[in-house]
Amino acid sequence: MKLPKINIPWWQDGSTISEALREPHYLTQGVYTFMQKVQQWLQWPLEQFDPLTCTESLLNLMAWDRDIQRFDGEPLELYRKRVKFAAINAKDSGSVAGFKAIFERLDIGIVAFKEREDPIQWDVITIEVRDSEMSQNSRLMQTLIEQYGRTCRRYRFEVSYPVIVNLHHGEFSHSHALYRARDEYTQKTAVNPSQVNHSQDIFVASIGNNQ
Q1: Helices (H) and strands (E) in the chain — how many of each?
Q2: What is the pLDDT of residue 63?
Q3: How many Å apart are CA 193 and CA 200, to the nearest integer?
Q4: Residue 100's CB: how many other CB atoms inside 10 A?
Q5: Which one in 25, 83, 162, 175 has a CA-CA gap of 20 to 30 Å to 182?
Q6: 124 or 41, which is more confident?
Q7: What's the Cα-to-Cα distance from 197 to each of 36, 62, 194, 200, rounded to whole Å?
Q8: Cα angle vertex 94, ends 89, 96, to 5°?
C-alpha cells in the first residue's frame, strides 16, 4: 500500500507564490517522510510472513520447515522463490504439466518434456532446454530433479540451440497460356464381293445279301 501524498492549497504550500521555499513546505515534507517511516514500521511484522520480504534468518527457518536446502552459490532471490513455492511445487511434482510449472515458477523454460521414448529404457525422461538455461541454471535444475523427480525414473537433459531465420517475401507475376491443336483423319475401307466357284461329288455304295 502506497502512502498518499499530502496536498496543501497552492496559496499555503510555501512554493507556488513565493520566490524562495518557505514554511510550511519543509514541514510538509518532514511530516510525509515521518509517516513513510511509520508505515514501514507497521508493515514490517506482516512482511515476515512472506518469504520474498522477510529477514534472512526467518527465511532459513521457513526453508527448514518446507524441506528446502540452499545449495552453494544460490542467489538470495532464487532461494526466496524456492521457499515461497515449496508447497505448490511438491504438489505439482507428480505430473508432466506440474513439472513444467515448477521450472516456469523459477524462470526456467522447458522446450519439451519427453518420456517413454525408448521401449527398452522406458524409465528415462528427457528434458529439452535451451543452451542458455543449461549454462546458467545447471545447479538449480539438478537440485529440482533431486527434490521433485519421480521415483524409479531417470532424467537426462537435452540441449537445443534455437536459430532465428528471417524470410523475406516479395511480389512476382507471370503469364500463362495454353494452346491445343487436333488433326482429324478419316480412313474408309471398301470391300468388293466376288463369286466363289466350287464342285461337289457324292458317291454312295451299298452291299446287299441276295438269297
Answers
A1: 6, 3
A2: 92
A3: 22
A4: 17
A5: 175
A6: 124
A7: 139, 128, 10, 10
A8: 95
Contact 154, 124 (CB under 8 A): yes
Q: What is the pLDDT of residues 150-195, one digit of tens each?
A: 777 888 888 887 788 888 878 777 888 888 888 777 777 777 777 7
User: Which of 141, 121, 115, 122 lies closest to 130, judged by CA?
Assistant: 141
Break the chain into its structural domains and give their ranges. Answer: 9-47, 51-160
Q: What is the mean pLDDT of the chain?
A: 81
CB neighbourhood size of 25 (10 A) = 17
Query: Among candidates 111, 100, 59, 99, which has minimal Cα distance to 82?
Result: 59
* Rg value, the chain, Cα: 48
At position 185, the amino acid (one-letter code) is Y
Contact yes or no for 136/74 (Cβ under 8 A): no
Q: What is the pLDDT of residue 10?
A: 62
Bond into 24 cis (ω within 30): yes
